[in-house]
């Protein structure tokens, strides 16, 4: 039985939604609700190149879509071109602590960190939401993002996604986003480094969710090619 069973996930082709049973603090650079926020809803919105022309402001577009669906509360909102129906979830527990990572994975604009930016026509993003069972302090949430980012990068490197016209492997995409959510409250956990139980759980669930997502992305591409 999932520790997070009261926090329900719903999905359609356009929206992936996590309805939290109680308010959570979030730290992210998401399109909507980026920074430090308290919310009880997380959304992923699927878009295409035609939805976001250069003159459109992504946050404004997203908020208008939320209004159209009748959403009036402040939410954490990710944006992606990846299939929401292929979202991946990994949940692990140890010593009474629990972590769940939800990932949507697209690698169409895969890049290698530290290289000059290029304007490609392809789109694709890795969006990660890491949910912890215990309250995290602000500084611990920052550390949690670091751990999740490292795990994401490891999963992408091991998948050996080759950058177009280059011999190097990608480390992520140009538009990846990570959000950390934990129950809103005081007296939070201060440290979640790799020597801690939470650090292990964050790293392990993120690695697994991204790895699963990459496999789904590769499978979808292979099926697409076979049908052409």
What does this structure look like?
The chain has 228 residues and is an alpha+beta fold. 28% of the residues lie in helices and 30% in strands. It has helices at 58-68, 138-159, 197-227; strands spanning 8-11, 15-28, 35-46, 76-80, 88-94, 97-105, 110-111, 126-132, 172-173, 177-183. β1 and β2 form a beta hairpin. α2 (138-159) packs parallel to α3. Residues 223-228 have low confidence and may be disordered.
Total count of helical runs of at least 4 residues? 3
| Percent helix range | 25-40%
Low-confidence stretches: 223-228
Count of DSSP strands: 10
Major β-sheet annotation: 8 strands, mixed
Content of β-strand: 25-35%
Question: What global shape is seen?
Answer: globular
From the structure above, extract its key features.
alpha+beta, two-stranded antiparallel sheet, 3 helices, 30% strand
SSE arrangement:
Layout: E1 8-11, E2 15-28, E3 35-46, H1 58-68, E4 76-80, E5 88-94, E6 97-105, E7 110-111, E8 126-132, H2 138-159, E9 172-173, E10 177-183, H3 197-227
Parallel strand pairs: 3-4, 8-10
Antiparallel strand pairs: 1-2, 2-3, 2-10, 5-6, 6-8, 7-9
Helix pairs in contact: 2-3
Summarize the structure.
By secondary structure, this protein is an alpha+beta fold. The protein has helices at about 60-70, 140-160, 195-225, and strands at about 10, 15-30, 35-45, 75-80, 90-95, 95-105, 110, 125-130, 170-175, 175-185.
